[in-house]
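STRUCTURE REQUEST FORM
Protein name: Propionate 3-nitronate monooxygenase
Source organism: Streptomyces griseoloalbus
Requested output: structure tokens
Priority: standard
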Amino acid sequence: MASPLTDVGVETPVLAAPMAGSPTTPELVVAAAGAGGFGFLAGGYKTVEALEAQIARTRSAGVGFGVNLFAPNPSPVDPTAFRAFAHAIAPEARAYGLDTTRFPVTEDDDHWADKVDLLLSSPVPVVSFTFGLPESGIVDALRTAGTLVVQTVTSPVEARAAAEAGVDVLAVQASAAGGHSGTWTPQRTPPAVPLPDLLRSVRKEVSLPLVAAGGIATPHAVTEALSAGAAAVMVGTVLLRADEAGTSAPHRAALADPAARDTVVTRAFTGRPARALRNEFTDRYGDVAPYGYPALHHLTRSMRSAAAAANDAERINLWAGTGYRSATAEPAAQILQRLASRA
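Status: completed
Returned output:
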């Protein structure tokens, strides 16, 4: 494994991606390190206090790890479109005693400044960013604090800008990835470029180390990405059923359902493009949901939480990449070691 990844303790080229919400736990991150890889805590959607607690739990295990943050890149929602969508999904929410027509338009930056301050006052080995590029001053401050900076990109244009901002490593994410696209232009769904092709096109523009992400779920996919120029790969969906993951019961069940679902890129749940297993909600509202993040995330969050508690897989965001059928229920270390077996 080439430096600078080796410098933070990476021994095998398969890393555990940050999965915001409940799937990524400190235990999953520790397991990734124990398998010779590396894991990232997901800072998105957490309070500063919750993130600090997860950092402390992971740090107490004595392993290397990273933290991922959502860089501010708001996609403001049109208020009229927001209200129309809130009324459209009202029947789904009423099933759980919620009235989406009364929800306010909520725009926020996910406690950005406070989270950056936390990572500067108590540095971790690696910090990664997605959704947008932080100010160069933040990149410089983190690097001065001894932190390796990783930036998620989805195109050669983004890769060039990230390199110019002084980041250390690029996480190159293809459209096959599960969950939110890291695109910096969420009003446009990224084209379906195969990961090896995307890696080669990025490599033509920059010389930084590349970490490949998006649809990787088999040893063959790992070797293919490495052959296309990646120094390592990052996997998420294939870990959703791992013993250490905090994935909800209905999400786990949907991933394991022998009546396999297709995946779709939808903005129905959050107003930002994200790949998920098809369900009734994506079918009904995928074409009518407006762009608008994080406003739609806040609008649907209570409904999704209630549906998850009720084991209702038709009203929750079943984030999943195209390789989800390879997700297995076993210890994370076994999954990661199997993926790295041909590297």
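Reviewer notes: The radius of gyration is 19 Å. Residues 295-309 form the longest helix (15 residues).
Form closed.
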